[in-house]
Design brief:
The chain is of the alpha+beta class and about 475 residues long. The chain folds into two domains: about 250 residues, FAD/NAD(P)-binding domain, CATH 3.50.50; about 120 residues, no CATH class. The protein has eleven helices and 19 strands. The strands form six sheets. Strands 1, 2, 3, 4, 5, 6 and 19 form a seven-stranded mixed sheet that branches. A hairpin with a 2-residue loop joins strand 4 and strand 5. Helix 10 packs across helix 11. The longest helix has 25 residues. It is globular and about 65 Å long.
Length: about 475
Amino acid sequence: MLAAGAAVLPAVSCTTQSALKGEIPERYNAHLLVVGGGPAGVCAAIAAARLGTQVLLVEEGGFLGGMATRGLVAPFMTCFDARGEKQVILGIFGEIVDRMVALGGAIHPREVRACSEFSAWITAGHDHLTPFDAEVLKYVLDTMVREAGVKVLFHASFVAPLMKGKKIVGAVLKTLSGLESVRAGLVVDATGDGHVAAAAGAPFEMGNKETGKIQPATLFCHIDHVDSKALRADVEAHLHEFHRKDGVSYRALHWHVAKAEAAGEWDIARKSVNIYRGVHEDEWAVNSTRIANVDATSSESMTDGEVEGRRQVQELMHFFRKYVPGCKDVRLRASASVLGIRESRHILGEHLLKAEELIAGEVPEDSILLASNSVDVHGGGSGANSTRYTTINADWYGVPYRSLVPLEIEGLLVAGRCLSASSDAAGAVRVMPPAMATGQAAGVAAALCLRGNVAPRRLDSADLRVELLRQGVFLG
């Protein structure tokens, strides 16, 4: 599908000389290059390919799914309205869920309610989550990109953009064969951290502009061999003790954390344990490590964070076995191969999404998805344990297409966590269901731009919304 050529690039920049001149073979040509095979990138690639676009999807790992598979982040957060009555994130996300359910690899969100073992017994913002098996998700995503005709290239890392003035026309990649390049009509940055957009010269903010803080990272782990009946009984006997004080949540197992702290056996900046039951009875996802000051754009910082995350995982395993009913024989099924990053770059686009807009339930005319995910800012209070959590005051809010269009750079769209949003607003839409929806919108937009020979910032959002509706996206 994609042409492979023997041509040699003149340089990383198409308009200036480079030390790399004549050294990088032009290996691929594509209508659309999608960088990053996580939740947003996969949906962008599938959506564009289904509209007849030749798509190259590059991923630095050996499988698709990003945070959902490499990061073991689970479950998918809510995809329903704030009342818990209507599923509002559908489209490709809904199809992925349905396929996993059919294979026994997920529980449909309509069957999962708040304040249950599947939601870590949390109520606010945790209705209709989606437990899933990461191995089944890997298979489903492989199947869907193949069916759509997407060309996937694993073990390929973004190195630099190919620029023609202010327009991106491709990228240099590091593959197992060395440095290679791809020419593309359009590019979608689905790296999560905005690596492509930043390298191309798009303006961005790092973390919270006002405070200078970056939300802490988490290394997820999954455990099994849990006597879930005993664990459930212990937590449900203490539900009346759940509370929040000074911005700190005291939820599941906080009564055992207090004992471990008193014994000098707890050195994690949490007061409770977020533990979500998985698809299988004895399996649970644990979201309780907390690693501060991780810069996801620095290899050194990520290395330090991942080492600290694994230390905290081992501390958690000791805690479960010693203190938690039903966990005497618990086994560490897996720890994530990459840190779960809540925040890094926020690429500045045609519209900067603000938390106030989400909380008020604003739905711009160019909305490309509706969601109800709450504003969740970890480490946003006075201490490392604290969070700021704000539910919205409407059934849903809209995310505008303009937040996918970076300022200053042509030929580029962003999708997923790095979209144009303030730090607080990103705390709501960074989770995977809305990230997948932004990916689908970016893929459809790219296909329409290529078909009509129009720049992304000039695309008529009404045409985009018509096609999204045709694809089963809910827009109100």
